[in-house]
């Protein structure tokens, strides 16, 4: 979506509809049930929620174009993380216990991003340009932090002795929250101050120049981004009721809710990443994809950890054996894919196959 064109109507209509829907639900004290009226409400809710998420990402892209890389990608990832934390904590703090939701969502984000999104970007770029380049040093920074954070949060809980896995004790969870925030903070300092050049790849096609936006458009996007994020947070409770009811009705596996939340929050960012790959800007695709994975673990886990501790809820983080195998395979494959600074269509296809295996195993474990 180009920021040079006039602001699309959907960029302000959906946030406005989301606020109006929340006000209408609050005024009528509507309670969701699986009836014909409930299905109509669920459809309207999902359409407005998806549209509002897309609007939020559009405004984040407008701001990103103005501030430039790598700050622009940071705006996008932080916006998506706020939405993710709101959805996860709302569902987890609901009446129905969901101690695995944070783990399932974080794992789904890692698998969608590192296999589905990365694979699709590399595959499309490989078909169109044969090979695409990126900053090897930046990819190594992303992967080293991602591997450490994912291992600490998704694997280590299975092997602690203070409490039986797959959960950390309160003290252990507090320590993990601190170290993950510290590591992510140092990564941000590296990305935005120390080594900005690691995350910007020189283009050879003359594209990628900074956008020239009027101050009015910029500040309007800032305001609408805040409204969009607030609207998603306000509707998160009703979304959680729809997820619980539909999941119970169709007999969906426990990991389905986490996968659905991950798809909702990553779809707009995924569209932006694929669009960048089509324009031969694989570096931006990598920044969006791997950056969102890091933000998910580095910010979502500490936020959810604090929420579960404050409201005395259970939080299970450790993956089962099947998930650990898929995560380890993703780590190994990512090292090979990002190990040379050049990609081709075969690397993308292999990632897509691993992602297909993950989705299949969610429904047929």
UniProtKB/TrEMBL annotation:
It is found in: Membrane. One of its GO terms (molecular function) is sodium:proton antiporter activity. Keywords: Membrane, Transmembrane, Transmembrane helix. GO terms for cellular component: plasma membrane. The chain crosses the membrane at residues 36-59, 71-94, 106-127, 139-156, 168-189, 217-236, 256-276, 288-311, 323-339, 346-364. It is a multi-pass membrane protein. Coiled coil: none annotated. Residues 40-192, 221-363 form the Sodium/calcium exchanger membrane region domain. InterPro entries: Alkaline_pH_Ca-Antiporter, NaCa_Exmemb. This is Ionic transporter y4hA. It comes from Bradyrhizobium hipponense.
